[in-house]
Amino acid sequence: MLLQYAAFGRCSTCDCTSRGTTATFAIHMEHSTTNPAPWLLELKVDLEYYKETLQAIAQEVIKFEVSKYPVFVAHKEEIDLGSKVLDAEEWEAKWDISASHLEEFVAKGLIESEKIDAFKKAYKDPHTHMCVFAFMGESGHFVFLPYE
After folding, report:
1. By the 8 A CB rule, do 79 and 52 touch?
2. Could you tell me if residue 84 is inside a domain?
């Protein structure tokens, strides 16, 4: 498996998510106005482009009771996580997007079972925000972006 682990910590801007002790962190896009990383700006452009499709997919995941916690995985290389739903080449974008959910992250050991409650507390309303795990090499970051 390419991805060793993933977790979450405090939003780097507002300190609004749960405590965590790993190399990854959550970013609420509406807070990332000062010096965002280049990858974050690039991802934001693609997510704006994809957002209507992603919102529809998230609603289907919830409607069909696959999970109450859909997670989209943004990646530039093939990964064994989720099911690819948007191909960057087909959309003339930079990031591929796979659909996953909290339960798969737990099953694959990407979120430790003792961190599930903290993840749920940090998770934004899936009707108004997308939850994206940006996978980059051996690390990743959770990003929350409003659909509107």
Report:
1. no
2. yes
